[in-house]
Amino acid sequence: MSAPSVLGPLAEACSQVREAGADDAVAGVMPQYVASPADVAEASAVMRAAAAAGLAVIPRGTGSTLGWGSPPARCDLVIDMSRMNQVLEHASGDLVAQVQAGARLDELAEVLAAAGQRLALDPPRAGTVGGVLASAAAGPLRLRYGTGRDLLIGVTVIRADGTVARSGGKVVKNVAGYDLGKLFAGSQGTLGLIAEATFRLHPAPGAASYLTLDCPDGAAADAALVTAVDSPLAPSAAEIDREARGAPFRVGILLEGDPDGLAERSARMSDLLGGTGSGAVVVSATPPPWWGLGPAAAADGTVIRIAFWAGELASVLGCIDAAGRAAGLDPLVGGSAAAGVICAAVGEGAAPAAVAEFVTALRGAPALRGAAALRGAVGSAQPSRGSVVVLHAPADVRGLVDLWGPVPSLGLMRAVKDQFDPDHRMAPGRFAGGI
Amino acid sequence: MTTQVGHSTLDALAPKMTRICGSDGVLSDPAQLATYECDGLTSHRCSPGLVVLPTTAEQVAAVVRVCAREKIPFVARGSGTGLSGGALPRADGVLIVTSRMRRIIEIDQRSRRAVVEPGVTNIAVSKAAQPLGLFYAPDPSSQIVCSVGGNVAENSGGAHCLKHGFTVHHVTGLEVVTPDGELTWLGDGTGAAPGYDLVGAFTGSEGTLGIVTKIVVKLTRIPESVTTLLAAFRNMGAGGAAVSAIIGSGILPAAIEMMDALAIEAAEAAVACRYPEGAGAVLIVELDGPAGDVTAETAAVRALCEREGAYEIREASDAAERAAIWTGRKSAFAAVGRISPAYIVQDGVVPRTALAEVLDRIAELSAATGVRVANVFHAGDGNLHPLVLFDDHVPGAEEAAEKVSGAILDECISHGGSITGEHGVGTDKSMYMPKMFQPGDLDTMQLLRCAFDPAGLCNPGKIFPTPRLCGEVPGVRRAAHPLVASGQLDQY
How far is CA B332 from CA B22, B83, B94, B269, B280, in A? Predict the structure, then answer.
């Protein structure tokens, strides 16, 4: 396709189209054009024009995680969602907000806070609503509130061929039709463009209390987390953080609620945690400096996300240490341990072969496999009970490592992809199984 | 339903199914088949061509493989309590009943997970988890009988879903038989499995994308404290204002239910619940959580109700009193059967802020048409259950009730709500899907169906409208479902 023949139709479809510049590269791959639609109609028209020209399309919010994962096999057009940044409706009486996908999460939070409400989603990096949904980003609040997909009650998406499709709606209870929102959440742009999203909100808590303690090892951290989560005190989050193998495991518990009730709950939680033998409990109204950072610390290195059944935490932490030692690595470890999702991160200088060895060892951890009881009882396809996904890695590491690892029901995922994007033009090659 | 495939083909199937499920796992006698002719939507009936009752996931897969090879449609059925005809069989097809798959395979207390077979009843999960201080949060009204597999199909909610979520928030892994007969796992139980969220897409797909054979559910810590309040108001407006005030104050109750005067009258006649005299509306508010918080919230809710004009407030001081408060509400559906020969159960949703207007509109419709409507609803999330009453012996009364029922759904749509909050689309409401969604929406949704079931054999004709409609009128009841009449389950 020659430049003028594509630019014309794109410019007809969208009021802002330009040639791409160096800053528009997607994981090192340069697109030709960047289109910035103003609304659903323009976004649909752009997708139609892109389809007619056979362009590979990548949606972009703030781009905060655009460079993560595998580079796209092709990238012709970036759809920049920054003009679609409006909070379309905040129905505070219904605890519902409808937002354009290019709206930034922090700006949305300000609008909602003005009415004493919040979207209970706290991912580490500033991002757009669409980006957070598409990348399934989440933060400490996931323990109590789930992720974006759990808070989503309606979505407007635009298919690769330009068709606009809505599912769900503006009401929290709604089982009419299939839930496209769940399907698109975490799909990383490979099924189409998320244009608008409607969320259920929660009352913003009156106060917060962070209880932190330093635990000498993984078992002690696990004990502290179990104490917190098994208590009747309904923590909103339970996180861990460890900088290196010699350092303590820092444990942080978040309680939220009405100030009076919170003081009492805090005192009770402090007593319970104090009883786990890991040392002094510090109570504060503000989070510790390491709270909710996610794997930001090793932004240029390798970030590995480990998901597991929460009861296996001590075993998973042990495996990280054993695998790290064997590979000669000392990763930073942290995350939403009580929710069964943590990250291990190593710096950019780590030897690629060592990183590959480390990932392979993690994937072999018994704690991530199907339990013996399940194996014995079933005889059918034996499920894994966890996963190790490399979210981000330098190019030389990517060359040696399967970023995704085994993915359940990959065949069905391919079938879904083939239906939604038969020409494979949406973020090709970035997803599981090379989708 | 016309029989496209002759009985000879189904007769030939029976021995194959017997080899898979055993002779006591296959039913072909017409009298036996007739007992499966409907689910909770008793107005729609169709005897299945064949019934199989597998006991393992492998058997389900083998059955489906035979159906796929022979191009025979199949429908899955759990406990048969669904209210939208999702398990309505095909006369030319096989009904795969999962009620014999009722093992709780594993409970993992540390991980707060349970692995269950699809025939396990909803309440059985909570009962098994209770000694560990845990429960299974989605609690549909039929939970004593309804199956977890059915809950997954419908994305069932229940009175407590405002705070605790629906099935899709509590399912983290599914073993399914795909429509071509393969056994595969969606997700891995963590809730953070890599790839597309097929668990989320499958939940609520009403049995059209495959058959669930194992479910990994999340278990929730039993709250430390629960209080239940009953507040009586002179009229619906005041009750609605109280709901808005409670939500607006930042309290998120575990449940808020509301009944109007007609529903209260019916419940009183049925179960002598002794709700306060002269109530134009009653509110049931349940609060749960840490003890201190619940105490404070209870006081706040009382104050707000009084401010909005509640003339009597009762607070349960123990489990028995709590059950007594709920009795009237839980009896409402069956109870209207005493004050009317027949009735339609509707299930629609409106934004909470539109509740007052829609209720006024329903009252107007009722006055204009002479068709009585009793209102029962989950006020916290705007999920209405208008009970449209009529005498089916009066010519034209059924049609008039149908029109009012349909008009109520139209109001739900026009106020930005939904045609179904929890009962599903199934057979009952597929005709309304084009009113709620655009062609592009339905077309896109059906891409998912094409991915899972290109042959169109898995519960065909459900959810999305088909050219051929059933002869029966949707949603008409003469009496309570037999299970309700026998007291085995509540429907509310």
Answer: 42, 16, 35, 10, 15
Tens of pLDDT, residues B18-45: 999 999 999 999 999 999 999 998 889 9
What does the domain layout of chain A look like in residue ranges?
Answer: 3-82, 87-203, 207-284, 294-371+382-409
Nearest Cβ partner for A380 among B110, B133, B183: B183
CATH number at A294-371+382-409: 3.30.70
Q: Note the pTM of the prediction, 2 decimals.
A: 0.94
**ipTM for the whole complex:** 0.96
Task: Classify each residue of A39-50 as buried b or exposed e, where b means 16 or more C-beta atoms within 10 Å of its C-beta.
Answer: ebebbbbbbbbb
CATH annotation of B225-414: 3.40.462.10
Q: Mutation target for B interface from A175, A315, A382, A391: give the one with most B CBs within 10 A.
A: A175
Contact A366, A38 (CB under 8 A): no
B16 touches chain A (CB under 8 A): no
Alpha carbons within 13 angstroms on the beta-carbon side of residue B135 total 11
Is it true that domain B104-221 has CATH number 3.40.50.720? no
> Fold for domain A207-284?
Alpha-Beta Plaits (3.30.70)
Q: Is B365 on the interface with A (CB under 8 A)?
A: no
- pLDDT, one tens digit per residue, over B62-85 is 999 999 999 999 999 999 999 999
Of B58, B195, B197, the CB nearest to A407: B195
**Does B115 touch chain A if contact means CB atoms closer than 8 Å?**
yes
| Adjacent-strand bridge partners of B322 | none
Of the candidates B110, B214, B423, the beta carbon closest to that of A226 is on: B110
